[in-house]
Amino acid sequence: MRPVDSQDDGIGRRTGSPEWLGLVSSGMIKQFLRDVDWGEVDYLIVDTPPGTSDEHLSVIQYLAAAHIDGAVVITTPQEVSLQDVRKEINFCHKVKLPIIGVVENMSGFICPKCKKESQIFAPTTGGAEVMCQDLKIPLLGKVPLDPHIGKSCDEGRSFLIDVPDSPATLAYRSIIQRIQEFCSLHQPKEERTSLAPETQQNVLDESSPS
């Protein structure tokens, strides 16, 4: 794994964040995705905020020429999260972006001593599993809560290496394998390379909460 070097102090300050609006935000996304020489990479993963917005459309537009393999949709078990995720899935369908699958994060907590599982965020409507069955979308896996994840991240270490046998690590490895299998079989389609301006606005209008 080879990091990308930055020649300045980064974006924003340690105690603050940049305030990007409209064209400024779109311009920065373009700069990151199209004006950076990423070199030869195995995978380029773009982490986007929840919801459907101009930023999501910008990411799809600027990466279109590279043929996006698809989207991995992340949710938590409770219905309030699933409601937003259904809108995300509808957005992906509208822009003809393949959905690789759904990952249910914070999916229970397994006690490290007694090995008993507790549902911290109760899946009152069946969680991601039922939603994926209803929408006929692959469920890539469920990642349980694990305090080691936060500890490893704070220390800048790989969680997968520090606790290789934890349930969360095993879930991550299974999810990664399924994503790799999808990408290796995926064939780019030319019709996904662009969206007309009127289509972009329709997508945002229909995906926005009523």
Automatic annotation (TrEMBL):
Locate the compositionally biased regions of type Polar residues.
196-210
Matching entries from CDD domains are given as: Mrp_NBP35
Q: Name one GO cellular component term.
A: cytosol
For region Disordered, the annotated ranges are 190-210
By its UniProt entry, which InterPro entries does this protein fall under? Mrp-like_CS, Mrp/NBP35_ATP-bd, P-loop_NTPase, YlxH/NBP35
GO molecular function term, any single one: ATP binding
Annotated signal peptide: none
- Pfam families named in the record: ParA
Q: What is this protein called?
A: Nucleotide binding protein 1
Q: Which organism is it from?
A: Phyllostomus discolor
The organism's taxonomy opens as: Eukaryota, Metazoa, Chordata, Craniata, Vertebrata
